[in-house]
Amino acid sequence: xxxxxALKTASLRPQTLDVERVRSEFPALQQKVHGKPLVYLxxxxxxxxxxxxxxxxxxxxxxxNANVHRGVHELSERATEAYEGxxxxxxxxxxxxxxxxxxxxxxxxxxxxxxxxxxxxENVKAGDEVLITEMEHHSNxxxxxxxxxxxxxxxxxxxxxxxxxxxLEEYEKLLTPRTKLVGMVHVSNALGTINPVKQMIKMAHAxxxxxxxxxxxxVAHIAIDVRDxxxxxxxxxxxxxxxxTGIGVLYGKQHLLEKMAPFQGGGDMIExxxxxxxxxNQLPYKFEAxxxxxxxxxxxxxxxxxxxxxxxxxxxxxxRGVLQYATQRILAIPGIRIIGTAKxxxxxxxxxxxxxxxxxxxxxxxxQGVAIRTGHHCAMPVMQHFNLxxxxxxxxxxxxxxxxxxxxxxxxxxxxxxxx
Length: 420
Ligand code: C6P
What we know:
The protein is of the alpha/beta class and 420 residues long. The chain has 2 domains: 16-45 and 311-419, Aspartate Aminotransferase, domain 1 (Alpha-Beta Complex); 53-309, Aspartate Aminotransferase, domain 2. The protein has helices at residues 3-12, 19-24, 51-64, 74-94, 108-123, 142-151, 168-174, 197-206, 226-229, 254-259, 294-310, 312-330, 358-366, 380-386, 402-419; strands at residues 32-33, 36-37, 39-40, 102-105, 129-133, 154-158, 179-185, 210-214, 233-237, 248-252, 270-273, 278-280, 336-339, 348-353, 370-371, 373-375, 391-395.
């Protein structure tokens, strides 16, 4: 497209989100739950899927279903083209240098485990250190704990303050020449905090550490540019950004991936196999053993293209407005305490109600058609920081409106009347 064409397209793109139109594109949102129109506020757990993603999956299974990289027949060629085409689109979405840096995985959890096993076991030795933050999801704690135990290395934790903000000076102090790896969550799923990952990466690089960003909660809300962040690895899940479950990506810098040993052995990841010796395929296939989630990858591309078309800037601005409105309205309810009051937050509202258990709140809201999540959100150390067993959490997506917030607040007020 020439420059004038690009400008015209940009000017045609709406600057605000037409929430009603967007919502009409998500079939799951059209239903009633317990006789009430569904208000879905559990997007941190997983997002609903637009028609275009569902139709992409359907079309693939109706017409193109075949294994990839294996057949010479028409269907296999079509499936391979779509599967590899999706990798190209994901590369562009993340602004990675090359498709070789885009490894398909089952999601964020597997992506982080891949780094822990493949990079970690080779590079983290006895006495070395792995640094993470206090607000990590279990997926970005347990793999490092397992690695450190195996290697005889030490797991260090950078603390946060009572707003749920990382204490950057403490983080910097914990970086030493022994720090081999730093794991950091971009957006906390339990608090909504947006971490200053670019700055954290720069600090980690200053001591020669390799960085792993858990982007699970970021990709649906913040435009990601892995080259600008300069992260070494970035992990993400398709299902948190309107795509199918069971598929995700590990982005890794090519020079690091080249040196890493495969994580799993099997089909597709090999170049040559004999009983005496096996040699491995080139990137990215070296890390993709077995028949992959082909439909998932194609559906993931379709979801990213949907998001890209709406524009992440427009989505972020809309969601920021919804979060601000929800924050202001919830604070008017007596006994509410917001857990996670960082200056920089997105899409997540975690709270407690004095005198009520979070799971009772969730149950009562469910009977009013409002879906939220309750519990520790797979971030037990965050709960330990606040000395809580769990919280109730409303998490917003691009299809949520202020009207949804009004229904949620009315339901919460009802819960309060019943429980307190
Ligand atoms: N958080 C939530 O309700 P997977 O399961 O691999 O797609 O994503 C794991 C994961 C990793 N990091 C963060 C920050 C996450 O939020 C999640 C998933 C869900 O908050 C399920 S526990």
